[in-house]
Amino acid sequence: MKKINRRRRASAVAGVALLAVAVSGCDRMEVPIISEPTRFVGWTLVEHLQWVEAEIDKAIAVSGIKDGWFKSFSGEEIEWTDDPRSRYEIFGSLLPRACGGGGLLVQSLVVRDVPDWAEISDRMRAAWESEGWVVTSVFYPERPDNPFYRADRRDGAVLSLNSKAEGLILSVESPCSADATMSTGPLKLEERNAYLEEMLERPYTPPEE
Fold first, then answer.
1. What phi, psi does 172 have (nearest 5°)?
2. β-strands 134-137, 97-99: how paired?
3. Cα separations (Å) of 142 from 91, 145, 152, 172?
4. What is the C-alpha to C-alpha distance for residues 81 and 124, in angstroms, rounded to an integer?
5. 144 forms bridges with which residues in the sheet?
6. Total domain count for the chain?
7. Residue 70 lies in a domain
8. pLDDT tens track for 82-98
9. Cross-referenced PROSITE patterns, in alphabetical order (predicted)?
10. pLDDT digits (tens, 9 = 90+) for 70-83
């Protein structure tokens, strides 16, 4: 059975940090964008996980870069692939963050060395606008050598893409929810844990070596 693509971060820790600085040109990209909720939705934690996963998959499809995206945590880089075990590990570490009286999810992925970063940035912006998101530049005035767009929705959801030749940083932030499973304490993870186990049962055919 093919192993999940794991990369130890002995030197990767520095690499990811340098990429974050290089892509952003400022410290703010080392943490995801967190916006104040404009309204509460009633989604459960599982529904938030499903939404975040779907938005990431859509954004990656728009980018045209299928391979190389990864999440960095716990001393390793876990590559985002169609392998259910990859999704299981990445989402297994994702817990609600406080937002007013509720919770939200934030997931960020990185891909390095993207020659057509400017074209991808324009394509992503157009795709988000076509879906009704309000897209604005985080930098003012805009930086042609480092386009950084965020897309906002009325329910408080936020998408963002920070682009430069060194790489792309994609961030997906779910709307704020007052559902009990989105509480930041005490955590209610029974439904989520059952969903993650079901995720491992998804049909998957590994690519040929």
1. -125, 125
2. unpaired
3. 33, 9, 18, 21
4. 20
5. none
6. 1
7. yes
8. 999 999 999 999 999 99
9. PROKAR_LIPOPROTEIN
10. 998 877 899 999 99
